[in-house]
Amino acid sequence: MSGRLKNKVAIVTGGASGLGRQSAIRMVEEGALVCVTDINKEHGEGTAAMLGERGFFMAHDVSDEAAWKHVIDTVLRRFGKLNVLVNCAGVGLENDSIADCDDQVWNAVMDVNLHGTFLGCRLAVEPIRRAGGGSIINLSSVLGLRGGSDTLAYCASKGAVRLLTKSVAVHCATKKTNVRCNSIHPGYMLTNMVRDYAEYFSQDEALALTALHPIGRMGDSDDIAHMVVYLASDESTFVTGAEMVVDGGYTAG
Ligand SMILES: NC(=O)c1ccc[n+]([C@@H]2O[C@H](COP(=O)([O-])OP(=O)(O)OC[C@H]3O[C@@H](n4cnc5c(N)ncnc54)[C@H](O)[C@@H]3O)[C@@H](O)[C@H]2O)c1
Known about the structure:
The chain is of the alpha/beta class. Helix content is about 45%, strand content about 15%. Helix 4 links the parallel strand 4 (about 85) and strand 5.
């Protein structure tokens, strides 16, 4: 541990698996105190066990405003402040093209990816400001930068997260709150989300996901966790409203 996040208190949503879990692990290694939240209690408790005494888990549906208030109140009571929010909870669903996306799929994706991120930003800005400032980190996607044939609602939600992030950043900077807000845009990372996606599509299509990345591999959870640590730390105090693309060159060509 080199202490890059010493004295920082963080909430990481979607921390039961994948990018959220690995981000929480790296943040604790760098000295942060972390509240991990998720709708998946069993795996969320599993993450908390990996974090040891510097972390704990709360069941939390990010689309539920009352649940958000409960999480933030609990963190403030337990740790006395909040410095960092990582909005990592997200879903991608089947039947998500313009030909087959119905209201149910659209609303389910928007509720978690966009509304959940909006609620987190809205409710975290003030406590982070009171703590003297800090960082909100929103997980968007390369699919928030370009469209996808079978990822209509997902792309719409992640594209909206990109501009939600910039709007939060500009407001907070202008109002001198010392609250920064940035989005991360991963390429395809080897987590549960992509494994599910790969099951839905054929093996050849799954292999084709790898070929999308000029660097020659899909991403690893640590590729994102390291970016989260940077954005959470004071090394990035001049970085706000930025879209941090971590995609092995996927969108560069
Ligand atoms: N894996 C990738 O390739 C990839 C690429 C680009 C962006 N992302 C984004 O990164 C984030 C993390 O993805 P991941 O790959 O770790 O996926 P994951 O499926 O491993 O983790 C997502 C977590 O979100 C939780 N979640 C779902 N709905 C929730 C809700 N309503 N409230 C609280 N938690 C909820 C799930 O239980 C799960 O633990 C997501 O926002 C995703 O869209 C992932």
